UniProtKB/TrEMBL annotation:
Residues 39-58 bind DNA. PROSITE patterns: HTH_TETR_2 (PS50977). This is TetR family transcriptional regulator. The keyword Protein transport does not apply. Keywords: DNA-binding. Residues 16-76 form the HTH tetR-type domain. It comes from the Bacteria. It comes from Gordonia oryzae. The keyword Cell cycle does not apply.
Amino acid sequence: MTNSQTGERGIRETSRRRRQVLLDATIRIMARQGLAAVTHRAVAAEAGLPPSSTSYFFESIDELMAEAVGEAMNREVARLSDLEKAVSQSGSSGGALIEQFIEFLRSDQDLHTIAQFEVYLYASRKPELRERVIEIIDATRQVARQALNASGVRDPLAANSMLALIDGFSLHRIANPTTDDMASLLLGLRALLIGLTSLEVVGETTLSDHRFTK
């Protein structure tokens, strides 16, 4: 490799790192202040780069936000994939898997959780990103389904109920960050698991009732 080629490779690597730093900075701003706070100047300042950096790498602020949202989605899918592997290989009971799920949520940073919901809202107005959001939700649902199946719960809507409880808790934690009552979430999930298991035992199919699934 010639000196010229080595130099070009170094420039490309530097550009890649700076571009990634800008995306990381954008995700942090989205989480802390919301999408409205994402500006060229704010992102460059957060990244510790010159103000012109964002316009050099991205044609518009919309392009920057879209790529940052995509980056956040990729990270979430990767995290959920790791959790799914851990759940599928553990061989634990449903209750133990729920506690494992709780630990996963506990280790999650608040900024990451806020960014996730910011991404959901942003993607709701961007049809081209909705498929990625659905991918994240499906990945989360698959983990929940595995935990429920380990306890004998087969109702196809049961995982949705579990996710609704978890997302509701997460939103409350964002609204009131001074409290982090994971014990209440664990109680709710255990109660849900007991109720769903009981329905399976008696053969009740209320959750899949056609009156609510049309």
